[in-house]
Amino acid sequence: MKGGKLPKRQRLIGLWLLLSGISLLGGAIFAAWLDSLFQPQGLARLVLWLGCFSGGGTIFLVGLLLERMLFTPLRHLQVQLARLVANPDAREDYPPEGWLRGLGPDLMRVREAWRSDRARLATAHAEGARSAARIRQELETLLQVLDTPLLLCDYHRRLLLFNQAAESLFENHPGLGLGKRLDALLPVSSLQDSLGKLPDNGSPRELLIPSNERWLHVNMRRVPQSNGETLLTLTDATTAWTSEMGARAGLAERVAPLRRHSASLASAAEALGSARHARHVDDSLRQRLETVIGEECSALGSEIENLGRLIEDMQQQGERLVPLWSNDLWQSLNERLAENPINVVPIGMPAWFKGDAPTLLVMLEALLERLSQHADTTDFESELLLGNRRVYLDLIWPGRPLPQRELAAWGEQRLETLPLSPRVGDLLRQHASDAWSLADPDGIHARLRLPLPAVERVGAPPSQLPPRPEFHDFGIADLPPPDAELAQRPLRALEVVAFDTETTGLELRRGDTVISLGACRIVNARLLASDNFDVRVDPGKPIPPASTAIHGITDDDVAGAPPLPVILPRFRDYIGDAVILAHNAAFDLLALQSPGSGVTLEMPVLDTLLISRALDESLDGHDLDTLADRYDLSFPPGTRHTALGDARVTAELWLALLPRLEARGIETLEQALMLQATAFDKEDACT
């Protein structure tokens, strides 16, 4: 036995077969010698040979009996105990058997008592848990519907909470995630200085800071009676800043030229008027004055045109004019018309435009009611056509175009349901728009056309993400400081990134490379459901059909994907200060750190294959499928042999191994690394 553990099954079987073989061979040689020496006959000869073979046969039969009645039941018992330690509610596949069958009632009693104690404890805390769950649900609902981005960080500036608005504001930013440092999200020295000087009474402090190509208005306040937690609310101030530095600044610049040209024009006109009443005036002077007046009129007209464009830009940049997807507008319009016989059917390609959705809906409803009376129909079509700088919103009906005089009268209609009862014309001017009617080339249909500001954006809006199951984890505040010695950090306090790769093949030293990289994050011994990294990688070579048969990735799937040297810096940013975890990490690290990759992963590496082998040296099967079955883990359909799917199960396997490590006194990263080092052998090094 090695280190107090059962020897591996292969060693036991090898030793048993070796002893049996030696005994049988020795018995055969001894029987042949006795047979030649005494030359017995009949029954005596049979007894002699049987006696000489009895030792080897006895060893073989005893070994077979021990394997069937003792060693196999012991291995099954070990698997069942490991599963129960990892998960007390795990299924029972291996009831005691063989010579251990008598332990069945006792093991059942221990398991039921364990579960009964847990049930009583759960019942004792049920009321408090129910109240906490209700508070948590209300908090998460509030965070989901709140439009203001929120960040809550602890004394060490680790994120304890953020909401969906913050997730949208920092979309795809590697620094956003529970447990990550605020410094990675907003690396601005002025912000760090302000955080250090916040008063403890909850008084707010405001700051304007740059973030990529935006300006963020940050409101900070210390949470009173807390352990140094700080709440940050953020507002994207880029639009207001751009407005102040753009169209509004241009408007101020246009005032001086207008005044100058107006003054020059007034002086020239006054001089020309005086010259006309004078008797002795040179014609050349009169011509020069007329020329000056013409030039100043032209310049004044040009400045007025520039002023008009600036005003139009200001209208398009108004806070109430936001990007709208035409399909969303038509759907909302039909919902408003649900109790109205008017029906609007969108045709053509959808598009983006800028508008004030609430006022547009009211105005379109009023215009459709007028059109329905004019055209004597309740069925209309709607279409958006792309122009140069405008998008044309058309309402289509069978019939003749509207007279411009009638349209002008419609523009005076007041919309009583809106604040201040604006007119239709007022809303059109708000959108820098107008309205006119024209006939279709088919001679059957007519259109009412409203030009609206365009948006430099293509493609349908992304589907609404489901609410994240983790918005907060206040337990992060109880973790050791980020600058604490990593080797002595408790395993449950580690930030862990579990990752996996899919490759073109297994011969990494002969040119096979990564085609998919997936990872997920564990914070405070909790697997974050939506904090993941999942990308395809262009291998720069065809994917063999044999590899595609395993992971299902084809050449078309990686066409246009970035190469590995582009992906690795992003993956390194995703890891941050975490420890990395993999199953058979040597293979995945070799795949990622091939020559020329340009990024070195120097953080500590945990390997669930080695840890499982060190914990259960006597058990066979430490591959991911076997361990998933052993610990009652499951792959969602279609996720096996996908990088992210395997990474998730590896993370769940690590969480299942944690109680077993702690039961053996292995509680720090240093101890876990020492344990897995004992299971690293020459075969792993060669691999």
From TrEMBL:
Record key words, sorted: Exonuclease, Hydrolase, Membrane, Nuclease, Transmembrane, Transmembrane helix
Gene3D superfamilies: PAS domain (3.30.450.20), Ribonuclease H-like superfamily/Ribonuclease H (3.30.420.10)
Domain of life: Bacteria
UniProt cross-references to CDD domains, sorted A to Z: DEDDh (cd06127)
Keyword flag Transmembrane: yes
Pfam families the record matches: RNase_T
Keyword Cytoplasm annotated: no
Transmembrane stretches, start-end: 12-34, 46-66
Known EC number: 2.7.7.7
EC category: transferase
Residue span, Exonuclease domain: 495-663
A single BP term in Gene Ontology: DNA replication proofreading
Coiled coil ranges: none
Catalytic activity: DNA(n) + a 2'-deoxyribonucleoside 5'-triphosphate = DNA(n+1) + diphosphate
GO molecular function: 3'-5' exonuclease activity; DNA binding; DNA-directed DNA polymerase activity
Gene Ontology cellular-component annotations: cytosol
Function: DNA polymerase III is a complex, multichain enzyme responsible for most of the replicative synthesis in bacteria. The epsilon subunit contain the editing function and is a proofreading 3'-5' exonuclease.
Subunit record text: DNA polymerase III contains a core (composed of alpha, epsilon and theta chains) that associates with a tau subunit. This core dimerizes to form the POLIII' complex. PolIII' associates with the gamma complex (composed of gamma, delta, delta', psi and chi chains) and with the beta chain to form the complete DNA polymerase III complex.
NCBIfam families xrefs: dnaq (TIGR00573)
Protein name: DNA-directed DNA polymerase
